[in-house]
Amino acid sequence: MEEGVHSVKKKWISALVCGALLVSGLSAAYAAGLFYKPERKDPQQETNDHSGIQPGLVDSYETAMLMAANEEQKEAIARIKASSFFFSERAVKIVLGELPAHQPRMTEAQARKIVSTLVAAHTNEHTEDFTSTIMKEFNRIHGAPDSVGGSGIHRSIYTLNEASGSSITLMLGMVTLSKPDPNHPDRLISVDLLTNEVLTPRPTASPA
């Protein structure tokens, strides 16, 4: 019975992951950040009033606007906000200069290695604290999640460095890889990276 409930939970989370990918606007947010060229800052001119917000603590578009050094940055942040559903943390931090314009993106192989290494060293139940540890390791490469937020259920989404549009979602203590099914281009394969279990494939587009 417990195994059946766990399976239903995973299928439900898989559906949530796919829904998040459809509405998060990752590609548009990435493009908005990519085409923004941060200005080179003069150390002698770091006198902006950031209202006490510390670098690295930008967690919303509101705080990002307060951190913006000029109108150009504010306009870039506004464009990112308009093109995405959740908070596009990585793109915003690139605009603010907290991440370099060419911050590397994590690959599927790197993500799998990070997760497998931490799972092997972690003997306790996999919790949201554990996935926070995974997220910190992801950020060492990726800089920050591409998209964070959610209505009642918080999720962090990383768009990987694969041309296929693969991504990883951290949500409800799970780490789920989503990528196109090579045999069915209209479907996504979802893989629980904590167990390497393949979840039920889902359509990449909402049914008509």
Explain what the structure shows.
With 208 residues, the protein is of the alpha+beta class. The protein contains seven helices and six strands; from the N terminus they run H-H-H-H-H-H-H-E-E-E-E-E-E. Strand 5 and strand 6 form a beta hairpin. Helix 2 packs antiparallel against helix 4 (71-82), helix 4 (71-82) packs antiparallel against helix 5 (89-96) and helix 6 (108-121) runs antiparallel to helix 7. The longest helix has 22 residues, at 2-23. The radius of gyration is 18 Å and the shape is globular.
Summarize the structure.
Helix content is 42%, strand content 18%. The chain has 208 residues and is an alpha+beta fold.
Give the helix/strand layout.
Blueprint (H helix, E strand, L loop, with lengths): L1 H22 L2 H9 L26 H7 L3 H12 L6 H8 L11 H14 L6 H15 L4 E3 L5 E5 L7 E5 L2 E8 L2 E9 L4 E7 L5
Helix pairs in contact: 2-4, 2-5, 4-5, 6-7
Radius of gyration: 18 Å
Count of DSSP strands: 6
Number of helices: 7
Quick one: overall form?
globular
Low-pLDDT regions: 4-9, 18-36, 40-53
Strand % is: 15-25%
Order of helices and strands: HHHHHHHEEEEEE
Strands in their spatial order, largest beta sheet: 1-2-3-4-5-6
- Averaged pLDDT: 78
Structural class: alpha+beta
Distance between the termini: 35 Å
Largest sheet, described in full?
Answer: 6 strands, antiparallel
Task: Give the fraction of residues assigned to helices.
Answer: 40-55%
Give the assembly state of these chains: single chain
